[in-house]
């Protein structure tokens, strides 16, 4: 009987893994992808939707090719529990599926309780995160559009690690770009729990000073502890309260709920430790975890590009294991994250990570990678090229 491989989550990690399991096995592996959403909506580039220069349709792709071209079975559902002893997963619809291998790429979860009052404020529609691209992304844009000129947009950033290190700073640029055109008396406040800008710091700071003078205020070491939905007041560990008009508060994050619930989050109770040669969880055999949910090695960001790379290493290792092939992998992962600083100019950060067998971890290759010298429109073209390529690689 053929091995059953269940892929849970059809985002950057899971969709790539499903496709490459089929490709690497010469279309022989039984691969089922379980994902609640009918289409793939990209978080990369979603900040352009927040800033109003793009729509959700520009960053949405169908899942059809995975089934039609690659023979992945797609189940539109979500997994409510995994039983590693019985090797079964239970779906929200009530069905139970058996597995030999699970690939789990559920993204990251927002720890709503880490900010007092946040859950209630979200419920009241006063705060939202839009940290998973979709309807909230559009709502955030609408909140900006409805805001008075002279109002304040506040975005808060939790202590790293969190999904997409440069993402919040890119979002601040996109909101400021919108304000510059339509609400020039308004302000963007960046409330950062970190000591300094976590990614591309010098580049972002230069952009804020040159392109958005007086509009973006950056406040490091501002750790948000609470929010009052009625008065739209943000509370901090140390500093005085701040009021804002549009509140985009990002709480601390963890591995996706289903990973935590299954008992896999054995790194500080928040992230999943994996064996980097096949991305198998160190807590449970035959459950391989990818993407944002894992405890990353040295300087590996929680990015879509990285999740895509994890997926290929895991898929190759699983196909080899199930086929009885002897392989001696020495994986190398690459990453590039582009950030739009306005509607067309972009900066990037790139890195290369080599598996070091003696240390069982990935380390950046000395002298590799780097940063843009300055924002450019040409890099904007590259950024869209990157997006169309990775969407084709993941789903095409
Ligand atoms: P996801 O892509 O989020 O996929 C997780 C999937 O699992 C989802 O589709 C979800 O519906 C599904 N799922 C969750 N739980 C279950 C369950 N119980 N059952 C079934 N399915 C489930 N990365 C870059 O590389 N470049 C960028 O420019 C970039 N920009 C970003 C900008 C923003 C604003 C944000 C928020 C993120 C950005 N990222 C970027 C980061 C990137 O989106 C994530 O790192 C990436 O999506 C992680 O992939 P993943 O597979 O771990 O999770």
TrEMBL record:
Transmembrane segments: none
Pfam families: FCSD-flav_bind, FCSD_central, Pyr_redox_2
Keyword annotations of the record: FAD, Flavoprotein
InterPro entries assigned: FAD/NAD-bd_sf, FAD/NAD-binding_dom, FAD/NAD-linked_Rdtase_dimer_sf, FCSD_central, FlavoCytC_S_DH_flav-bd, FlavoCytC_S_DH_flav-bd_sf, SQRD
Keyword Flavoprotein among record annotations: yes
Domain Flavocytochrome c sulphide dehydrogenase flavin-binding: start-end pairs: 329-395
Ranges of residues in domain Sulfide dehydrogenase [flavocytochrome c] flavoprotein chain central: 137-251
Name of this chain's protein: Flavocytochrome C
Organism expressing this protein natively: Polynucleobacter tropicus
